[in-house]
Design goal:
This protein is 75% helix and 0% strand. It is mostly helical and 459 residues long.
């Protein structure tokens, strides 16, 4: 009876939702288009260049990195100083967004990494991006740049340690009864470490340089790297081909055949390097069908991550676009931008103006609670929005110019790049709702407190 009642209630909810769908309202229409626009942009800009390499790396972690190695450096019994030090600065190397880091996080966590170091890696991956911190300092001021760098590193360690302590009982049980992961008949752990390191270097190099963002200035080392990014990416791809031939015994003829479409597109369509990149990814996937058991396991692991993560990511991106719009939109989400701007200002006067009382004096209780409210609102909003790498800086520049306070700006910088609605949905599928809500809550609370302290210091 309960099952039939649930079906009835579900059908009734769907009927009422469709019956009262406010299609006649322009803002609702704009929010629908904005959701599709953000999903289209995400598919074009992030799936091929970010997620596909991340899935391959995550699958490789599951196959080529022994469980003993993960347990040694990141497991519950590992040295806390070593595991948290490595995890907290991982973002300086990876330079990934809050969604791209998810397959990598899932890879090390499911291999046996402790909750604390895995969470530190999950936070630091998108938060501690060297180029983003440099851009923050140049565009938003050196104070915010320094505060973001110090805050992000400290956050990753503190949040990781708190998660470890809050779930200490489960972590002790995990350490006492480590789960064995079956990965195939050939996983004997006898491959030399230098071969594995070189192979991962090639994959991480492809991920990092293919996604190297264009800096604002057209001179200097960052812009020079940006101009040469596809050449460097091609060199790392060649290194991967060498590893496949030399270490995994894939025939050279197969590797060359898989590389031909990518080379042809690179020379025929130099203005569309993504086409050559996509052909290279397809060629790599094809090679996993002609390699040995290790490559087959690698393909299966990568595909497993893709099946688990991609649907949740796209649902989350659609929801984020519907409610808050895309990074380059102007007041297009269902929530008006002017409300967001009014709720993160230095004083409540902008909010009172929207409410039709521009000349009113804010009550004492509202003025006293305003710093807490603005920083909390900025943290929650940043946690729900999706920020691609570096896009948070121009968005914040616009908000600061519209009256946003320095404290809420830092709170958004510390919560936004590391979290997003798509990111939360996937974390929930890996950790479960209890740990996910705890992680999100810690990020929001710490970002709020840090923003309040910073806002007080810079006044």
């Amino acid at each position: 009876m309960n099952k039939e009642l649930k079906i009835l209630l579900g059908l009734l909810a769907a009927f009422l939702g469709l019956y009262f769908l406010p299609l006649e309202h322009l803002r609702f229409q704009g929010a629908i288009l904005e959701a599709l626009h953000l999903a289209k942009w995400y598919a074009r800009e992030h799936v091929l260049l970010c997620l596909v390499p991340a899935f391959f790396i995550a699958g490789a972690i599951g196959v080529f990195v022994s469980q003993n190695a993960v347990m040694k450096y990141f497991g519950p019994k590992a040295s806390k100083w070593l595991s948290y030090s490595v995890a907290s600065v991982s973002g300086t190397i990876l330079a990934v967004c809050s969604c791209t880091v998810l397959p990598l996080f899932g890879g090390i966590y499911l291999r046996g990494a402790g909750l604390g170091p895995a969470i530190a890696f999950l936070y630091s991956g998108p938060a501690i991006n060297v180029l983003a911190i440099v851009l923050t300092a140049r565009v938003l001021g050196w104070q915010l740049g320094v505060a973001r760098a110090v805050g992000a590193i400290a956050f990753s360690v503190v949040i990781g340690l708190l998660m470890h302590l809050l779930f200490l009982k489960e972590e002790r049980e995990k350490a006492a009864h480590p789960q064995e992961v079956f990965l195939g008949d050939d996983d004997k752990g006898d491959r030399p470490l230098w071969q594995i390191a070189l192979y991962f270097l090639s994959m991480v190099g492809i991920l990092v340089f293919a996604n190297w963002a264009r800096p604002q200035e057209t001179s200097g080392i960052w812009f020079a790297i940006f101009r040469a990014k596809w050449i460097v990416t091609a060199l790392f791809a060649a290194l991967m081909g060498f590893c496949l031939w030399r270490f995994f015994k894939v025939r050279r003829a197969y590797i060359l055949l898989a590389a031909v479409p990518s080379l042809v597109l690179a020379f025929a369509l130099p203005q569309y390097p993504v086409a050559a990149f996509a052909a290279g990814a397809a060629g790599l996937a094809a090679l996993t069908f002609v390699g040995g058991t290790e490559l087959k396991d690698w393909r299966d692991q990568s595909w497993g991550f893709a099946k688990q993560i991609l649907p949740l990511l796209f649902l989350g991106v659609l929801a984020a676009g519907f409610f808050l719009g895309s990074p380059d939109s102007v007041d297009a989400g269902i929530i008006p931008n002017r409300w967001i701007q009014a709720l993160v200002g230095d004083s409540p006067q902008a909010l009172l103006a929207i409410l039709g009382r521009p000349d009113a004096v804010a009550p004492a209780w509202l003025a006293s609670l305003w710093p807490l409210w603005t920083n909390l609102f900025a943290s929650v909003t940043g946690a729900l929005m999706y920020f691609a790498t570096l896009t948070e800086v121009p968005i914040l520049r616009g908000l600061l110019d519209s009256g946003m306070g320095q404290g809420p700006a830092l709170a958004l910088l510390l919560a936004g790049p590391a979290l997003s609605l798509p990111n939360m949905l996937v974390i929930n599928s890996i950790l479960g709702p209890k740990k996910t809500l705890t992680f999100v809550g810690l990020v929001v609370v710490m970002a709020t407190a840090t923003g309040m302290i910073y806002g007080t210091l810079v006044r």
